[in-house]
Amino acid sequence: MSTTTAPDSARDTPRGRPAIGGWIHLPVIWFALLSAPLWMGYVGGYDALASRILVFGLAAMGLNLLLGFTGVMSFGHAAYFGLGAYGAGFVLRYWVHSTPLAILCGILLGTLAGIVFGALMMRRTGIYFAMLTIAFSQICYYFAYSWNSVTGGYDGLRGFERAPLHFGPWVVNIQTNGLLFYYFVLAVFAICTALMGLLLRSPLGRTMVAIRENPQRARFLGIPVEQHVWIAFIISTFFTAIAGALYALLNNFADPTALYWVISGNIVIMAVLGGMLNFWGPLVGAAVFVWLEDYISSMTVNWMSFIGLIFVVVVLFFPRGLLGFMRRRSS
Q1: I need a surface site. Which of 71, 101, 129, 277 has the fewest CB within 10 A?
Q2: Residue 272 in contact with residue 285, Cβ under 8 Å?
Q3: How far is the first Cα of the chain from the last one, in angstroms, to the nearest whole number?
Q4: Which CATH number describes the domain made up of 17-330?
Q5: For the chain, what are the domain ranges?
């Protein structure tokens, strides 16, 4: 499996160790996330926008396990994001009014697709692997677009809404309370990032980084590179499917555009914008991207031109991404 090797200038940690983030940065990041509803209004934000940042931040961090830490490019993660959304929507629309069960089914649908598609792609290399990811994503988009009786077709899957959470006699009303839903999303996000951190500090995580650094040397050491790339791909789609399920709950809606290649491109941009070789970089990239999308699109329909210009500037002048640049300036 051909991988993309990171230049030495872009590495934030010693060779072979995942850049998960120092203890100094963790309190700042979590304080900002926990207090977001208090200060988002001062920068033109709101609860739903904060939830959207977390959702796409999780999707970008899921992709980054494959792109930044394993060194394999995927342009088709919208497939697993969208399938996660549809899986959650199907449960709420056709089966049972349960938020946890909806998320679980969204995860299962997206991850199952990742297992199958990954098995078909694992022996392809370089650009062929990347192109196949787009192809499978577009296949999923076509079925969602044309299967009107189940998915709603072009109009999307409607007629469902997220359900309150029940903990014995206590009920958490995330159905209509946007603030409570934000903290629910934040709780899921926290669990996912903890799992990612444990993964990257495990032997599997270090093997993923070894494959990124030098796949030929990893193969000479007896590491089955293709199988490990497949495992990394499945894990990446698992977290992206969780983000997709949360996206459906956020909007009470799922439509084919969640499966479209544009979403895949946006997720890649978020990862690169924030710094794909840094654990928290994709979250920073998602925050910048989503906030700019919301703010600039309210003023002009050509908002993508401005984001594209910002992306070009970051790639040219800040190769470590925004978070990598900030960390370098503070060190």
Answers
A1: 101
A2: yes
A3: 36
A4: 1.10.3470
A5: 17-330
